[in-house]
Amino acid sequence: MTLEQMETFVAIYRSGSFQKASEKLYIPQPTVSHRINQLEKELGKSLFMRGKREIKLTPEGEAFLPFALKALAAVIDGRDAIELVKKGAIGKLTIGCNNSYAACVLPRIIASFLSRYPDISVQVHTYAANELVRLIKNKEFQVAITRYTSNDPHLSYHLLHSEPTMLIVSTSHPMAKAGKVNLEEALREPVISYPRETQYSKELEASLNQQNVKFTTRFETNNLQLIKWLVARNAGVFFYSPSYMQQEIERGELIAVPLQDDPFPRSQTYLMYYEDPLNSLDQLLIRHLKEHYWNLTGIG
Asked: Model-level pTM?
């Protein structure tokens, strides 16, 4: 079993035909067929169902696919590692991110990344989750950080960190010194929320409706900095992830109070990437996140 055989197998899977695979690999179609025949002979199983219009993987081919992908990825990682050693880590890293994460959490990640790789420049695109999916599929960039996953089979997600939703109040709020706060008591306060059409608002309403509790929304805005300003001035309370408030909490401007019988699903942040092999700079970022920022909050 050779690397060329596995590379050809993956190229056929991704392109859907022997002819397109030969064009992609810049080799004659008979060479493509010969490599696959030799691979199938060695494995003792057919890997493709060959139809008139399309080619599909057999069950054995589907079982073999993830191992072939991992093998190719490992070779690419090795080549990239050699190149990085040879010429140093240089170039432009382009990533996508949701607006709130980019404003509140990403700066310290980028700062530590650039302190380690000072010759890399970074470009960050901030969009909502559905737009990040579209841009990655269009190959505008390969890696993004998002709070929500999709069912797209071509995208992979890795949980970056997970934490509970807490009640965010000002330091002068009566609930600021509570060890835990009752949900119904918290909802007697006016609530600050993202706009009704956002995923956050829909999840908030769904969780509270399941508890059969009523609440009054006083302010709606998609600007997190404005929300923080409103909370700090006791204009209302906010249910959110404390990591997005870390700077304000450290400065003593806001307090994150745990909820008794917390009804909310854990707030999760994911690394999203396209299934094609990642380039060397994307791999460097992922490696940096694994080393320093997996389970960023230390919760979960």
From this structure: 0.62
